[in-house]
Amino acid sequence: MTQDKGPKVPRLPLDWRVCAEATARNLGLTKPLEELPAEH
User: Superkingdom, according to UniProt (predicted)?
Assistant: First the structure.
């Protein structure tokens, strides 16, 4: 039996991801981007 892991989320290009992670850190969000709710 296979578990449904939810919708597949596309990976961001590396330069977008680096910028998004830096912005999240600057805003005080300490979890990895994959663990943040969509509204963040």
Answer: Bacteria
